[in-house]
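SAMPLE LOG
Freezer: B-3
Tube label: C17
Construct: single chain, 117 aa
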Amino acid sequence: QVQLVESEGGLVQAGGSLGLSCSVSGNIAGIHRMGWFRQAPGKDRELVATISSGGNTNYADSVKGRFTVSGDNVKHTVYLRMNNLKPEDTAVYYCNLYSWSTGSDYWGKGTLVTVSS
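STRUCTURE (predicted):
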């Protein structure tokens, strides 16, 4: 059973920075992609950033240049560093793992990030 546990989000002022981490437990052998999605109130869940087990990254246009996703394959942890935060970044952030090997999709419970103006 794969489980994802995000670190606690928080409240930050616009222009500030915040880091999130997500620890994965369980059998995740094989090629996979990890990353972060977010869902703002009244909106659909959207991709923020992903990183493959090979290290390839992908970012939403809205966060390029401000957010950095990284991973530690040994610790089975994925990180999201968020700089120059904007009020529109306010959302519940979800950690995600997709296994290319099995086609399985796993999600954390989500953590709230609030950016005040």
